Amino acid sequence: MLWTPGLSSLKMLDLVVGGGAARRSTSTTTCVFLLASLFFRMANAADIHVKVAPGQDATALEPLGTVTPLFTLPNERLKELCGVEPGLPDLTLWYRVVNKDDDAPLKESLMEQYAGVITDVVIPESAPPPDITPDFTAKQTYLLPNDATNNGIDAPYSWTFPGGDGTGVTIYDVEYTWNLQHEDLAIMHNEKELVNSTDEGANLQDSFHGTAVLGEMVGTSNVFGVTGISPGAKARVAPEETKLLGHNRANAIILAVDDGKPGDVILFEMQARACGLPNDGAQVRYGPAEEDLDVFEMTQVAVANGFVVVAAAGNGYVNLDDPACQGKYDRTKRDSGAIIVGAGGSGLFCTGGWDGSAREKLAYSTYGSRLDVQGWGECVWTTGWDIGGRGGVGYRDPNDVTDKNKWYMGAFSGTSSASPIVAAAVANIQGIAMQKFGAPLKPKDVRKLLSDTGSPQRGDTSTHIGPLVNLRGAIDKLFGETSQPTNVPTSLPTSLPTSLPTSLPTTLPTSPPTFLPTFLPTALPTSSNPSMSPTKPKPTTATPTNAPTSNPTTNTIVQGAGSKSSKQVSTKSAKNQAKSKARKI
C-alpha cells in the first residue's frame, strides 16, 4: 500500500475500506494483506531515518521533530563494529526523526530542504514478510539427498559430522513475531525476544510466519513432529518492529551482531519495495530488505564482523538487473556480502502450492545476477499454521484443535520458506568448520562455497536465482572427503615389490589444493571435543496405526489421534538416514 502524503490516517482508511467495490479484491488473502500493510504503515507514518553528512550537526533536523540516534548501542560500540576493516560505513551518522506531523514528508523534499546536511533518507514502510502460504499438506523431503527421485539438500549427510547439526552456532531470525512455546521448538521455550531492556516487540502480525521459519531450522529432534535442518543449533529472535522504536530493521540487526559471535548466522525474513517500481495491480514489487540503505550498511558491518547474513530475495518478481534498480544489485558497484536467496520449485504437488518443477524459479520470486542460491519456495513441512487463517489442512491435535503449540503446516512457501533452508545449511557448515579447524569460515567464502557446489537451477536460467544448496557437495569440496573412496582396488596384488626405493623425493608438490578455505579468528565453542558426535536425529519409532499410506511424494492431510503421534514417511526416512556415527574428520 503506497502512503499518500497529505491524507490523514482516517481518510486513508476510508479510501481502502469505504471507497467502493472498485477497490475490493476478490481474494480474501489480498484484502488481509492490504489492510495489514495499511495499519503497519499508519503505525510509523511519522518515522524517518536520516543519514547526516560527516561533520554536520543532527540538531539541524529538530524542526522536523524529535531527533535520536537510529541505533541504540553506544557510539563507542558502533565505532568498534565499524572499525574492523577499512571502508565500512559510519553508523553513528544515522538518526531517527519522529515527525511532529501525522504524515512523513517525501524523501525528495527532505533531501532538497536539507541539502548538504543529510546524505540519505529512509522512510520505513512495514512490508509483510515474504510469505505466500496457502493451505497445508506435506512431506519433509527437502531434508533428503538430491537425486533422480528427490530434490533435497542432504541434511542427514551433514549430521554425520561433528558440528554438522549446527552445534556451536546461533541463528538469529529478524522479522515480526513467533510462538516460542510450540511443542516442537523446545530450544526456544526459555528464549526471549532480542530487544532493549525497556522495549518489547510490537506484535503487529500473528506468530505463524516466524514459527514456521524456526521449525525449518531448529525443529526439535525427537519422536514426533518435524526435525529442523540444524537441530543442534541455538536460535534467537529479533523483532524488526518494537513498541518504543517503531519499525527499525537496522537496529534489530545490530542487536543480533552485538549479541552473537563470528560464525553465527543472521536471517532476514523481510522484504522491501524494490527499485522504485510501481505496483502490478495489488502486487507490490518486493525485493531484498537491503534495498534500504540503513539495512544495506548494517549488513556490511555484520558481514565484516564475521556473521553470515542470509536474506530473502522477496516475492515481487523483480528483475534486480533492471535499469530501474540503478546498479544497486551490481556486485561490481556495491556488495553487502549477504547471501540472497530466491524461491525454486520443490518438484512436488501440494494443495495450495505452485506446482513448481524442481529447481525452476517460481513465478513470484525476485531474481537477477545478485542472487546466490535458492531454496524450496513451496510445499515445505514445518511448525505453525496458515497465516491466511484458512485452516483445515495440515495437522492439529484432534483432542484440542485450538492448541497452537501443536499446529503444523505442510505448504509454507515464498522466499520466506526458501531462505531458512539456506540459513540452516550455513549453520551446519560453520558448525563443522569450528569442530574441524577451531574457527568458522569467512562469510563470503561460505557464500561462494554454496554457490559453487549447489544443484544447478533448471528451466529458464536467464531469470537467475542460483542453485539449490547441496550440503554433501559443499562438505566434500571443503574437506576433500567423499562418502565412498573412488579408488578402491578390485583385487589384492599378486606379488610384493622386489626392492625398496633408494631415495626420498627431492621436491615438494608445486600446485596448491584446489580450494583453500579461510577462517575467522575465534575461540573454540565450549564443547569442542573433535570426536564428539552431533545431537542424534529423531529415533525411529513404530509406524502409528493412523500413519498416512500414500506415496511419499504425494501430499496428504495428516491427522493423528491424541498428542500428534502421526509421522510423515519421508521425514522418518530422513531421520533413519542420519543415525550413523559421527564421521571423524
Itemize the secondary structure elements and their pairings.
Blueprint: H1 9-17, H2 28-43, E1 47-52, E2 65-69, H3 75-82, E3 94-99, H4 107-113, E4 118-122, E5 146-147, E6 150-151, H5 155-159, E7 170-175, H6 208-218, E8 234-239, E9 241-242, E10 246-247, H7 249-259, E11 265-268, E12 271-273, E13 286-288, H8 293-304, E14 308-312, E15 339-344, E16 373-376, E17 380-383, E18 408-412, H9 415-437, H10 443-453, H11 471-479, H12 569-577
Parallel strand pairs: 7-8, 7-11, 11-14, 14-15, 15-16
Antiparallel strand pairs: 1-3, 1-4, 2-3, 5-6, 9-10, 12-13, 17-18
Helix pairs in contact: 1-2, 6-9, 7-8, 10-11
In short:
With 585 residues, the chain is an alpha/beta fold. 22% of the residues lie in helices and 13% in strands.
